[in-house]
Design brief:
Elements (H helix, E strand, L loop, with lengths): L19 H8 L4 E4 L4 E3 L8 E6 L2 E5 L2 E6 L5 E2 L1 H6 L6 E4 L3 E6 L1 H7 L1 H30 L4 H16 L9
Antiparallel strand pairs: 1-8, 2-7, 3-6, 3-8, 4-5, 4-7
Length: about 170
């Protein structure tokens, strides 16, 4: 099932982005790993080969000792950049409360299930689009002579958008 089904005569096209209910049906057969509060799920610099989808709970993303995101949306994806770029994880992911993650075999699920691949692609595309909009805002702030503290907050937002585990693209 795709989100945004077109109505007759309204001129809208159905969205290509799967909704979370559709994604969850695809993930239902995957193993689930449970983590207690304050456990490290992924470590920056490690190469786990893991692609994780948040099933429940809350996790934080920490880069260079600084929390850049707190994520609680079911369907949020962790480890996708490392998998797609074949590089180590760029941030730590730690649970803030008891959390559950679906654990996917990246080559099998991304190559074998177009719905999941499209879902992950949509998360990355929306994150990039939002970061681009914030980058324009930062440039305007610099040109307008805004104080460094204001510009710094906008830069932090760009970093968060580019670095965190993502979320359900239908919830943006």
């Amino acid at each position: 099932m795709l989100m945004g089904v077109a109505k007759k005569g309204d001129g809208t096209l159905p969205s290509l982005i799967p909704d979370f209910t559709t994604l969850e049906r695809r993930l239902a057969g995957l193993p689930v790993v449970k983590h207690r509060a304050h456990e490290i799920v992924l470590t920056a610099g490690s190469k786990t080969g893991s692609l994780l989808f948040l099933r429940s709970g809350t996790a934080e993303v920490i880069k260079d000792g600084v929390q850049i995101a707190s994520v609680n949306a079911p369907g949020s994806v962790f480890g996708e950049q490392a998998i797609l770029l074949d590089q180590p994880h760029t941030a730590d992911v730690r649970t803030l409360e008891q959390s559950e993650f679906y654990v996917a075999d990246p080559p099998a699920i991304l190559a074998g299930d177009p719905t999941v691949a499209l879902y992950v692609t949509a998360i990355l595309a929306r994150r990039l689009d939002a970061a681009n909009r914030w980058l324009v805002a930062v440039k305007r702030q610099v040109q307008a002579g805004e104080p460094p503290s204001v510009i710094g907050k906008a830069v932090e937002k760009v970093e968060e958008l580019l670095s965190y585990g993502g979320r359900d693209p239908t919830g943006w």
